[in-house]
Amino acid sequence: MNLTKSQGQAITHSGHNLQLIACAGSGKTEIVARRVVHLLTPGKAISLQPRNIIAFTFTDKAAGELKERIVTRTRQALGEIPGMAEMFVGTIHAFSLELLKSESPKHLKFDVLNEIQQGLFVDRNSSKSGLTTSTDLKGAALKRYRDTGYYVNAISILREAERNDAQLRGCSLLSGLQTYQRLLDDKSYLDYSSILEEAVTLLTNNDGVRSRLADRVKYVIVDEYQDVNPIQEAIVWSLHRLGAQVCVVGDDDQTIYQWRGSDVENILTFDKRYSAVDQISLEENFRSSEGVVETARAFIKQNSIRLVKAMKPTGAQPYESGDITARPFSDPDAEAQYIVDLIKDLRGVAFKDDKDDQVERGLSWSDMAILLRSVKANAEPITQALQSARIPFIVTGMTNLFGTAEAEAARQLFYFIADRAGVGSAALKTAWKTADLGIDTAVLDQAIKGAALAKAALTDPDQKRWGQYSIQRVFLNFLDQAGVREELVPGGRGEVVFYNLGKFSQVITDFETIHYHSKPEEKYKSFANFLQYRAEGAYPEGWQDNKYANPDAVRIMTIHQAKGMQWPVVFVPVMLKNRFPAPRIGGRNVWHLLPRKGIRGQERFEGTIEDERRLFYVAMTRSQKYLHLTWAPIPGKNNRYARVSEFWSDILVSKHVKRRPPDYSTRKRTQPTPRAGVTNVVFSFSDLRYFFECPYQFKLRILYGFNAPIHEALGYGKSLHDALAEVHTRAVRGDFAKGTDVPQLVDMHLHAPYAYPALRQQLEVAAQRVLRDYLNDNATLFDKIEFSEKQIEISLDYGVTVNGRIDLVRRIDTDETTIVDLKSSDRAQPEEVTEAQLHVYALGYQDLTGSRPDYVEIYELDERRRKPRSVDDDFIADVKTDVRRAADALRMGKLPTVPAPNKCKTCDYRGMCTDGRAAARTT
């Protein structure tokens, strides 16, 4: 890569805080990676160790890409540097959670609620969460379900925004928030806001934490700085106050999360709030054609308050007349049909992903994205047209999930079990036949009979433990009994169908996480209510998917979801007044609960025309070459959506935007070939474990997102781990635990939220026995502990990274090193998999310290038995090969079944696997 002058300056800058103003497509990941290499280079004015650097990204996906690039560029420039695993690259939430887990022992057992689980948690504990004890600004009591979303949003704003407490006097939500926080603590939960809030408390008030961080953290990089909110900025500022220099990277033109509290003022005023700031603009766009760049640049210039910059084209893609169009239509169906026709025309058109590529490939379905201001409101005509044309597509996130026939059939299954009026056996059969999954009619009939038995069991007077009425188990059993198999779905739709059924499995998990202990009949009725009335609205339109799920299908998503992504072909339909730009939302909202003057900068939450321009700018700059803009009036609704967006005329000014239908018949064509959807691969060892056991299990679990049924003893093994982590951490600091500490350790760390009372008591007794035995057996070795719960990371060639956590590293009398992995019975796995895991850890230790460990050891806690092994170079070579094989299989989408009787009998997903079912029957 030939660097521009500004890129070179950004990489080698030294001496002050730095602000990189990075236009869309400016190659910021590469520049940040090379800047880190510069900081690590010995002999410079600033020469740091990996542990001295923190890099914050906006998403986990961006973190994986940045860390892989940093490691690659570091190896190229400096060779192998020990300790790269100690460089934190990730989200501010991930850093904050890691800080809590490492510095606050009580938080080791805390689970994190996602946004959906948080809403369900508030509903289920409507009084204890402060919901129904709070009032709106008119004094009316808040109501369960109706006000849950507003309440959850409001208490997040109170914790993450900058408050004006004088204007909040008398607001009942302050008391409600305190009630909610006590409930979270009592149930051992964190939500996203409390993670940040607790981290700020540690950074502000804990002198020990501040001292350790001041010693460690010397340089902080913040990517997507324009989307940082006040509490996230407080974390960045705290690290700066502890002595770290700060480099922020971002573009005020791409501030699109103001409705979540992002404050564009952070990036606009960075040079005024931090001392001695140097600004460097990265203006060259290495993603898009001249047509896209110049059209987008002229459009965003209408915003009045901007940092000084001007995005410039570099010829990354050739511009040809007809690449960019703006077309009106008479109605949404005609608009949708036009999009479908263009998708067909463009499939197979020759395309180079990079101007330096030597080989062209034909565009495929997954090269095309349809970006909407609101998927929920406007996707239906487009999805119907795609279905009619039999073009594969996926809707990113949970939005419109129940617009797919397979997810709707799954919903009907639970209406049937909950005994909903009008949903009998015939209706259920019709729903599954309509989904067209290749199910044999007779087999489906038997599956429906099985569902009827599950329904009858809910009211059985001799009910079993409530754990036997798992919603997830009923769902997986039905898929098994109905013969739903990926390879049997007609029309090559298997991947997309299982992708959607996997999302339904996640819906079940979100619900059951909170409602696991409800009475069986009540639980299924509540779940049916959730599916009917709340599930479609509960998941925000920005909900993200698994980063590895990559079927060859057209993407439909919101523009917010598309941030940080790119495609050769982008459609932006529904360019309508009152849709894009969107007006302020009327009706009941969070500001009926919170006084506007109580939140400083409150107006940003409601958005402005400049915010909407930024969003449209982001949409346009996702395109590498082809960009198609359309609109059509939507009838009804008092002609609210009958007129074209005001952005339309702003776009027609561009000489690159054509108004005729494009003719791609003369373009060069070749075989449609999907681009590599997964470049850098980041595996946890849990991911690898599933792959080593069976690649198809990995596909169902990790790629499609199917969840296993919750086990009642879930959490016990982790609780032992957490207790021992505290024992080992104390030992490193010279504080050796004794047998008398065991009750307190169990009381603090035992967390088995799904256990019924008798089981909980059994687990407590077992945990005390295991810990007491461990302390008795190992007390003489505590002074030899080198590391406890040490994060490791191995970066192999070809963009493959494996991360994990070593339980224990201990030195023995011969001064040799042993890596110890603690195993409890509920963490049992094949021994060959454990041995592979330990050799991965051996690699990680070497990467961390520069030294090869001498031994690896499995310590079986229940049997009080050690299984040491010498580190085997041949085994390490085999493990490296296996990891690369896993990454290659993931990239190519080749994840076959590897059946074996004993393994398949215990697999949670054998019912969806033809080979697994057959193997499980083998004796």
Question: What's the SSE blueprint?
Answer:
Layout: H1 5-12, E1 17-22, H2 28-40, E2 53-56, H3 60-78, E3 88-90, H4 92-103, E4 111-112, H5 115-124, H6 148-160, H7 173-186, E5 189-190, H8 192-205, H9 207-216, E6 219-222, H10 230-241, E7 245-250, H11 265-268, H12 270-273, E8 277-282, E9 284-285, H13 290-300, E10 312-313, E11 324-328, H14 332-346, E12 350-351, E13 361-362, E14 368-372, H15 375-378, H16 380-388, E15 393-395, H17 405-417, H18 425-434, H19 441-457, H20 471-481, H21 494-515, H22 520-538, E16 554-558, H23 559-562, E17 567-572, H24 603-606, H25 609-620, E18 623-631, H26 647-652, E19 681-684, H27 685-693, H28 695-703, H29 716-732, H30 742-749, H31 757-778, E20 785-796, E21 800-811, E22 817-823, H32 831-849, E23 855-860, E24 865-870, H33 873-892, H34 901-905, H35 914-920
Parallel strand pairs: 1-7, 1-8, 2-3, 2-6, 4-5, 6-7, 9-10, 11-18, 14-16, 14-17, 15-16, 17-18, 19-21, 22-23
Antiparallel strand pairs: 12-13, 20-21, 21-22, 23-24
How would you portray this structure in words?
- There is one protein chain.
- The protein is of the alpha/beta class and 923 residues long.
- The chain is built from 35 helices and 24 strands.
- The strands form 6 sheets. It has a 6-stranded parallel sheet, with helices on both faces. The protein has a 6-stranded parallel sheet with strand order 11-18-17-14-16-15.
- Strand 9 (284-285), helix 13 and strand 10 form a beta-alpha-beta unit.
- Helix 27 (685-693) runs antiparallel to helix 32 and helix 32 crosses helix 33 (873-892).
- The mean pLDDT is 91.
